[in-house]
């Protein structure tokens, strides 16, 4: 009993978790055989490493990636884009004389005659400074005592595409003759063949027709220097310095921020840089084609619809005229369907809060353009003279409009300080992991979106939709360099600087992307890294600790 009294007492420490600070526990990188963080941060997971202070990365208006993705592909010896001017003039990738006539030879040369060679020997991702004819996009290179060279943004930003669409609308036909179109068996065939006898001929042999059809299949661009999706997630990290409200006061020219003040502060953007500029019928583009022969205006699509109302199908008073077929004609594409879930921007607001803005879909509505065709039988006395077949038509306007919704969320204010270098990390971590080929067909995942400032987690969003890049519903020649874009230091212009033959299309003004993402970061930018994996906080903090001295910490 005495032993109990002497030794039976509570001598344990009482511990209680304090909520006065944020703590992370990680076991552990200093253990035996633990991976080296330097190896992880510089290994295959690193996809983009742009450092403006590095001469191998900085070349005036162009920034080059310092690393190559091991999955990069370029068709054959390289790919030549002969139609890059059609869209490249809209963000300054292809320059032209803004004061000249848009119907003159100089503009037409830039619009229809510009080329870009993408060599298989150079698979670096690159970004160029955007420009335009209407607004100012000032970028000033500066050099600090410790940070080295950086870019001061007062209206300008960088943008680049990493993949080309191979959308051709070409229908593959199998070698099974029973699947071939019946027109191939007619004499002569409707299929036009070239090069069989040294001249253009009409094929009468369906096997020859089949060969000719396949010979016309476009050669794929097969250009991709960054992945579009990741097994678990991705992480982007930036060194930037947010300016105060007077930071760019010395620049008196009109910028995107002056027009769209609600878009100020975008420092990172991913997705399509604009809507499809060829979505509608514009008179100035009539008669012009791509180098492959596709017309610049959208294709005309016809569909015959049988009216199910018998009182409209058959004429009264014994008339045998059949008027129940409606020819539905469209000549425009759904411009908004291309941008739904295809635009995601990250923004620092003037109060120092940080967050995102994205585009989703609310619904689809349509009005009909219809041409009613009435074939009058000459025997029925329906206004047709003897021996005649008369057609009358009534047309109304057709439009397809996809409803879109803008979603945005922000942290508390004061997360990013004015006039001070900050290390910003943006991470998406999916709740489910897809390995290898599973990524190709798996549906969009949910995950967490996390924002880090100076190595600390400052804000998080649960059940965030995974961002998936996608091409436009358009011929590949008419969307070169438009989808599969990253922007650094800004959002994107949309079609605010677009131009075409005989001037800009007024129906391209004030569209969704322009209204919601045409804005820029006002401040300084120095480095941009992107990883194809969801880095844990210890690695994000390690990167901050390893680079902080360069930026005065």
Helix segment tally: 10
> CATH topology of the domain at 37-64 and 126-167 and 227-278 and 420-551, anyone?
Jelly Rolls
How far from one another are the termini?
Answer: 62 Å
Number of strands: 24
Main pleated sheet: 9 strands, antiparallel
Shape: globular
CATH architecture of the domain at 37-64 and 126-167 and 227-278 and 420-551: Sandwich
Q: Which SSEs are present, and which pair or pack?
A:
Layout: H1 2-7, H2 37-42, E1 46-51, E2 58-59, E3 62-64, E4 78-81, H3 84-88, H4 105-113, E5 116-119, E6 126-129, E7 138-144, E8 148-154, E9 158-161, E10 192-193, E11 201-202, H5 206-215, E12 233-242, H6 256-259, E13 266-271, E14 301-306, H7 310-313, E15 325-330, E16 343-348, E17 354-367, E18 370-372, E19 399-410, E20 421-430, H8 438-441, E21 446-453, E22 456-465, E23 485-488, H9 512-517, E24 523-531, H10 537-547
Antiparallel strand pairs: 1-24, 2-3, 3-6, 4-5, 6-9, 7-8, 8-24, 9-23, 10-11, 12-20, 12-24, 13-16, 13-23, 14-15, 15-18, 16-17, 17-19, 20-21, 21-22
